[in-house]
Amino acid sequence: MKEWNGKWIRPKEDMGDVCPVFQKKWKTDKTVKKAELYLTALGVYEAKLNGKPVGEFVLAPGWTTYEKRLQYQRYDVTGLLKEENELDVILGKGWYSSQMPGWMVTEDRKRRTARRTGILGELHLAYEDGTEEVLPTDGSWNCAKSQILFSEIYDGETCDASYLIKDWEAAAEFDGPYEILIPQEGEEIREMERVAAKSVFVTPAGETLVDFGQEVTGYVEFTVDAKKGDKITILHGEVLDQKGNFYNANYRSAKAEIHYTCADGVQTWHPQLTFFGFRYIKLEEFPGEAKPEQFTAIVVYSNIKKTGELRCSNPDLNQLFSNIFWGQKGNFVDVPTDCPQRDERLGWTGDAQVFIKTASYNYDTQKFYKKWLHDLAAEQRPDGAVGQVIPDYLPEGAPSAAWGDAAAICPWQVYLTYGDKEVLADQFDSMKKWVDYITGATKDTYLWTGGEHFGDWLGLDAPSGSYKGSTREDFIASAFYAYSTSLVIKAGKILGEDVAKYEELYRNILSTFRKTYTDYRTQTEYILAIWFDLAEDPQKCADALAAMIEKDGSQMRTGFVGTPYILHVLSHYGYTELAYKLLLRKEYPSWLYAVDKGATTIWEHWDGIMENGEFWSTDMNSFNHYAYGAVADWVYEEAAGIHVLEEAPGFEKIRIQPKASKALDWLEASIETRKGLVKSRWTWQEDGIKYEITTPVDTTIVIGGREMEVRPGCYTFWG
Ligand code: BGC
After folding, report:
1. Of all atoms in ligand 1, which is nearest to the CA of residue 454?
2. Cα of 262 to ligand 1 centre, how many Å?
3. What is the pLDDT of residues 179-211, one digit of tens each?
4. Distances from the Cα of 400 to the Cα of 383, 437, 452, 471, 478, angstroms
5. Any catalytic annotation for residue 344?
6. Which of 13, 173, 603, 606 is deepest in the core (most CB within 10 A)?
7. What are phi and psi of 233, to 5 degrees?
């Protein structure tokens, strides 16, 4: 553990909403060989040395379970030093003292909003002459009100660029936490992309809007030639309403506003200590006539490297793929969140487990998830219960099946995709504790009955007025109980742990489940029973499921729980064409319905915008919710056939078994694995299907029922 010389500092008097800036000035007459800055905050900070950012991390130190784990960063700032130096650190509330969740004032939220922010740091200087020096944060630092008068995760930012910072006074040292400090674990949040404005236009209601053509997460940068005191007010929105006017009622209580007071002359600015989810901005006040070239959307997300690629002959499906990638970027701001815009933006565990497989193929997410899983384990309640959201900003929330199961499902997927045993070792206790929690909480032994659950959230077979699909909650809970137990067993065996207790438990859950649930009533019930190996005769069940889907009008009736597996189940049991039919369906409900309506990210509801152009509701209607984007893992694994093998995790060996359909002319998927690039493409040609496969490892290829073992290389087959 690092020994700290630095002291936690903050302004003497609480500045309320105003973001303080801390400053240290010093001179060096010696030549510096190496300068390293260690920095962290209770809040979020932006640090500049001699006017230049100390690194690329925005919203540092990121979001963790602050009571137990706070990351500090280390920046090499050697190149930024001069003879006379000035280090400035601006501090915002960030997630630390945020008003999350926005829809209710919990005791926990009151506690959080009341807490004061502060910074802690040390600059380590190593000189050419062999001497060393440390400049720690302490009472010798100065502090003043910055130009940022307000900054908050949901509500946005207010900046007065005309204000000249004055009234510097000594910062106050305070008794902040040291024992929870950990070196940076996750990926840094960075400004990853820039999207130029597509147009500036006036709506029928007379509002001036800027359209970026793409829903993004981040902030807008604008350049303006203004007079001191001119005002800019900007609102954010995801979609236009039925009449083509600005709409942001679905942000609920999140104001998501920018207020900016101009300095004199040409100036460029963007928010510094918060972020927004948006495609459109509304210029409520803006000096002069706004032109597209004055606006850029800066896209902010964790520094994950793109590893996956999906392409095919159908432009709508390609747009869906694009929406899935954008949905991931937009919800990967340090924590896997449900959405980036409304008064929520929380690390919902259910959404995370639903999407993790797709996420881990699309991008290199190993570090990202490992950090979040450490938070999950750190916040597990004494009885093993897992919060609905991690970091747990809803501590009163009841643990729900398929949400808490993220504790087992997520480590297992990180292990599979990256061959990372460490994640299993790190999380094994947490995985067991979750299963033990269920064992202690259930009303009936060997099932999970009772409790409060989210059910098949947003299932289309929900009774009117309910968010929960018709699948029985006890059924879902018991199925996931079995599934998580099976993952504990697998993980334990890999780690060489004794799992006899869980094997016995599993056998009992399985037989009790089979005795209790002798009939399946919904699509999701069939899907879970088959996919989690609970059904005695999976083929018979799959036949019944396919018949049920056809009877339902070739439509899905599933929600968050059933949807991720529906196509897998179908294509595994001989219904590949039906899987394609659902994937390519354009009418509501379907993935392509939203594409048809102009979506550029994945919607929370299949009918976020209904056929008549009205909104589903203002109540809970995000247009950037990645969960249903989980369908991409079916495209990688089944359509293109790229399978990671449990016995060879990390793509050590691969099985490639593409399932082509006449519904498309061609399809291609690739994943940059830890072992190299794997790629599978099929194309219909006059005399059959051409399969082109590139693999970096020994691979079993299955085409037209024929199994072939191949060495690393590029292959072409006809089928
Ligand atoms: C979130 C979801 C989440 C759900 C749990 C919603 O408000 O946005 O994605 O999983 O609540 O019920």
Report:
1. 12
2. 39
3. 999 999 999 999 999 999 999 999 999 999 999
4. 14, 11, 6, 14, 11
5. yes
6. 603
7. -130, 125
CB 661 within 8 A of CB 577: yes
CA 464 to ligand 1 center in whole angstroms = 18
The pair of three-digit structure tokens given for residue 564, joined into one six-digit string: 């991720």
pLDDT of the residue at 464: 85
Of 349-353, 458-462, 594-598, the least confident: 458-462
Q: Is the pTM value of this prediction over 0.90?
A: yes
What is the token pair recorded at 203?
């709506």
Let me know if 473 is a catalytic residue: no
CB distance 448 to 404 below 8 Å = no
Q: Sort strands 70-76 and 181-183 into parallel, antiparallel or unpaired.
A: parallel
- With tokens 């995760």, the residue in question is 153
Q: Which of these is catalytic: 46, 157, 604, 638?
A: 604
User: What confidence tens digit (pLDDT) does each residue in 622-636 have?
Assistant: 999 999 999 999 999
- Position 290, amino acid: A
Residues with CB under 6 A from ligand 1: 338-339, 344, 348, 350-351, 454, 457, 620, 625
Q: State which ligand 1 atom lies nearest to the alpha carbon of 338.
A: 9
Ordered DSSP codes for 596-648: HTT-SS--SSTTSB-TTS-BS-SSS--S---GGGGGHHHIIIIIS-EEEBTTB
Distances in whole angstroms, Cα of residue 229 to Cα of each of 151, 270, 334: 20, 17, 36
For the chain, how many residues are written? Answer: 719
- What pLDDT score was predicted for residue 368? 98
At 642-697, the pLDDT tens digits run 999 999 999 999 999 999 999 999 999 999 999 999 999 999 999 899 999 999 99
Residue 29 pLDDT greater than 90, yes or no: no
Radius of gyration, alpha carbons of the chain: 27
User: By C-alpha distance, which of 667, 511, 700, 690 is closest to 576?
Assistant: 667
Determine the pLDDT at residue 619: 84
Q: Which residue has the tokens 């009774």?
A: 463
Calculate how far, in angstroms, residue 250's C-alpha sits from the geometric centre of ligand 1.
14
Secondary structure class of 154 (helix, strand, coil): coil
